[in-house]
Amino acid sequence: MNLLADLAARLPSRWLLWQGLPGLIYLAAIVLGSRLGYRSVLDFDAAAAYTTTLADRLEKLSGTQSAALLIVAAIAAAALGLVAAAMAVAIEFLVYTRRVPAWPSVPLRQVEQQFRTHYLLDIATVWPHLWLQLPEEHRNHLIEARTRIRLAAITIGWGVVLVPLAAAWPLAWLPALVAVCAGGTQLRIATAGYARAVAAAVRRYTPSLASDLGVGQGDTLTRDLGRALQYHLQFDDPRQFQP
């Protein structure tokens, strides 16, 4: 128990909640599901009896054997967490790659199109420069918004990871569907929130960026200011930004 408490204290709480703990639950489901399968999927008496048998076997293990089992379980749970995280990265790619016609990227693509249409400003061009101008509190707000997208993507990733288990144990379909649906809802809300945060930051801080770069004056983002800043940052033909 001391080893487990020390391990938990060293791990980031967010990782433990979103990757470590689901991984351990997944391993427990594999053990139980492989025993019950399709034939005894609703046989709760068999599930309880098998769980009791496993508990009795664990009690008979020596301290060294228990520690070894704990380490193996932690490594396996971490590996499963990495698989879910890898799937989350793929989902995030769809969110941030605004030129990919996928539903997670819709809010950001809409914001990008609005700024390009109304202000002749490409967010992808101005954002790296604007990020350096943002106050720390606003950066943290944007980072937190992106974190919510990551956590939603991880939830979907766990739903996908559960599919192979569901092929052997049908009860696993329920948490798989719940994870995918809940993660999808969270992703839609989180992406829309991040898009609003980006739009607010661009509107508020672009004029000061333009002023610092000597390409415009004023406290409000206008079409002329956006066009001048875009040309300055991209060193391109300004005529291409004409309506």
What does this structure look like?
This protein has helices at 2-10, 13-36, 44-59, 63-96, 106-119, 123-131, 136-168, 173-212, 223-234. The longest helix is centred in the last third of the chain and has 40 residues, at 173-212. The chain is mostly helical and 243 residues long. It is built from nine helices and no strands.
Strand elements, count: 0
Main beta-sheet strand count, sense and barrel state = none
Task: Give the terminus-to-terminus CA distance.
Answer: 67 Å
Are there runs of 5+ residues with pLDDT below 50, and where?
A: none
Quick synopsis:
This protein is mostly helical.
Essential attributes:
single chain, about 240 residues, mainly alpha, about 0% strand
Write the SSE topology.
Elements: H1 2-10, H2 13-36, H3 44-59, H4 63-96, H5 106-119, H6 123-131, H7 136-168, H8 173-212, H9 223-234
